[in-house]
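User: Okay, second chain of the day. Same drill as before: sequence in, structure tokens out.
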Amino acid sequence: MPFGVDRILLNGRILTVDAAFSVVEAVAIQGDRIVATGTSDEIADLASGRTRVDDLGGATVLPGLIDGHNHLLSTSVGLTQVQLYDCRSIGEILDRVAAAVAQAKPGEWILGKGWDEALLAEGRFPTRWEFDAVAPDNPVVMHRVWNKLVANSAALAAAGITRNTPDPPADLLYAGGFDRDPDTGEPNGLFRDRAKQMVLQAIPGLSQTQLVEALAIGSRAYNAAGITRIADPGLFPEQLRAYQAAYAEGVLTVRSDLLLGAWGFAPVDMMAGLQDWIQGYGVHAGFGDDMLRLGGIKFGLDGGVGDRTGRFDEPYKDEPDNYGQWVVDPDEYPHMVRWAHDLGWSIDTHTCGTTAQDLAVRAMVAAQRANPNPRLFHRIHHGYFPSAETLSLMAEHRIGALVSTPFITNLGDSYVNSLGEGRAAQTVPLASYLAAGVPVASSSDSPITDFNPFVGMYAAVARKTVQGRQFDQSEAISREAAIRSYTIAGAAAIGLDDRQGSIEPGKLADLIVTDVDPLTCSDDALREGCATRTMLGGTWVYER
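Assistant: Same drill. Structure tokens below.
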């Protein structure tokens, strides 16, 4: 047993999340590692004159929380923009845009995100002309939670879009489009899917300095929520450089797995050279260190549920011919998976519909059977409605499910609109995944939904939407399982459970002090939980 350790934490209620879900009083830390756990008396005996002692005063401690599908960089940028997630009417949205305009210079872009028509009193999206009324001299672009945006007249003018602008080519998979006023033919401001790029290309890009500054803001916000590791999927060169710069400058305080953007997420103008770009790295998944590493590559296979583009084998509610969309050619996708697998890349694939998830899992299984590589950790993102066959294959081949747990609460009402009450209530079947033996980790897909893991834990155990709908309770999981899904299971999903995810000797000293006991507090208190202190590698990086 070490003597004279660097730091000890005493008098806590420390949920170790080890195999037995042990609760201890104290922990000893040497350098960036945990070296012992036990009673306060046992750990106090390891102190010397140089040891820093923290008395926790009975507070609850958890391992640092892990979000395996989280767009930290884009969330960080979004934290500097207009936030619309809690808006419940178009009037509220317009008020927030007007407040941003009041602080901006004429001609300055006003950007924001988070509206969901399913949660708005009007039951529709805002229009360009409504934004014109509060921002006549500023280009405005407000993103939906997923896959759509609305631009005002100044933004359309900056992008060169008029009533004479043609729709995107119909032969491009998932090209999307933009809506027009039926009487005048004028674009009403709503752009879908890849057609959004018609507007986005006009927005001035951020410099590396601005991206690094945003990552500093985002890191602090994540640490305040208790997050110590994320995986950010779908990145391209300028974004990778921003992460490296933030790490070098010491402002990145969230361990980050970076996944390269691949088919389904790459910009159209990059598609032709995508294969050469990925192969040209000359490295594979796992390159890096405990703070920043390349974790794999990200594919997009279908759309989402709220906007009725996820690919199913049953049609959407009231649309008998709509089974959703493919983002990439489903015949080509298995070949792409095999190519990436053979290069040594772990593969994450976005799948929301059952048909898309079936295809993705079969392709991953085929790649592993043809060229076994136990070092790779292939994963499914979202995985709302797995078939029985897919559950079996995922369990057999250890294909992880990075489920979007907080979507139950934050987006569940839009799923009811798209699928009906009965189908929607089955979404994110955590209990079924666990019963089948599938590796499961919770994730937020922020900025699509709230990055606070306590919201995800609440959603996993309560299964209630923001409007109070109760989803299938047979798919609810225990508090312990919910905590595991954000700790040791999150580490296992990215192949790092031997290094983090629990408070045990030999593991990284990543832990948080919380303002609630997630095992005993009420559901409402769990949803509002956060960290009061966050430790990364033995150093407090956040204190409230």
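The first helix runs from residue 40 to 44.

User: Thanks, on to the next one.
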